[in-house]
Amino acid sequence: MQSEQASSSKEEPPSAARLTSLKQFRAAGRGFWRDVSDSDWNDWHWQLKHRVTSLEQLQHLMPTLAPEEIAGAQFANHKLAMAITPYFFNLIDPADENCPIRRQVIPRIEETHTASWEMSDPCGEDSHSPVPGLVHRYPDRVLFLVTDRCAAYCRYCTRSRLVSNATGYDFHPEFDKQIAYIESHPEVRDVLLSGGDPLLFSDDKLEHLLARLRAIPHVEFLRIGTRIPIFLPQRITPALCAMLKKYHPLFVSVHSNHPRELTTEVRDALGRLADAGIPLGNQSVLLKHVNDDATVMKAHVQKLLLCRVKPYYVYQCDLIAGSAHLRTSVREGLEIMEQLRGHTTGYAVPTYVIDAPGGGGKVPINPEYVLCKNANRVLIRNYEGKVFEYPEAPDGTPTTTPPRQIEEPELV
Ligand SMILES: *Cc1c(COP(=O)(O)O)cnc(C)c1O
Ligand code: SF4
Q: Structure pTM?
């Protein structure tokens, strides 16, 4: 009992009020666009057409821009375009330069600083592409890049070499070639549509693609990676959900990083997808000033469950050129994971991964729970740091020796 009290007081956030507000669902609201009609505001095409894309618009909406942001916005169109939906823009706190929403979508001049170990294609995707726009890295599944456009652009995007076409990569995937590759590779049982954002396609265009993939007998499983439910929840229409539902088993992975992104609008959009029978996962990127804090991360994963989303992965920020100002250390990431596992619902705990630089794929990174193992026993510790022994006979079968908790770890 005593240790429970001790551990819960250790976890007490700096401000309990702040934690409550992180867990509350709030509407993003109209903010600067209060004169816009309901039908325009709720129309995803209107949202796309009225995105914030220029420094002039940004300065008009947010006179409190920092010099680093002004310089960043001037430079953005040479590297990764700036675009922010009005809906998402309203989540920014103009009074806080370190606002976690602001850091994700407003460019800063630090993006032009490239460290020697940073890369334009940190996960080596281009070198694992048998045809343009298809990455075949793992034995049984492929990543199918369908577009270079997103509803808004994340400043740390690992695919900024091609996304938004600011650097002239000129990505025009030819679906015929990608689909022909999948057809001729019977080992591919899982196709992950990503980009860019596949949900920017019209319902018809997306359906056409899904139907072609479903017609391939060995393709068992489809998934879509998208940030649209977060950037543009208006896109998740009943018609889209009714269409997606025809292509089960279909999973959707969304990308949210901070509890403030989970508004009532987002919760309702995710609810519509879940009601269409689509299992939902979330991928976060660990980012400085955004979610590099166990209290924030815990509120985020718990809130995701309230939105019917299973936290799937949390990524160490890839070594994408110009992202050092958003990067955290692996040590900090491990400390955050340590504060999740065991301290909250198992379903809420994502797997922390590093996408191995150069193309090694996702490697799980865990706090160490196995203290040592030899032929006779495994010594483990739990989330509270208590040590336990799991005895094993040399041939691997459990022995009859009763398992025990060890007060002081013994050296083996
Ligand atoms: C992330 C990724 C996948 C999917 O990996 P899972 O661990 O199955 O979610 C597949 N292909 C590539 C190239 C990827 O980067
Ligand atoms: S939504 Fe995804 S692909 Fe698009 S900019 Fe953000 S991280 Fe990159």
A: 0.92
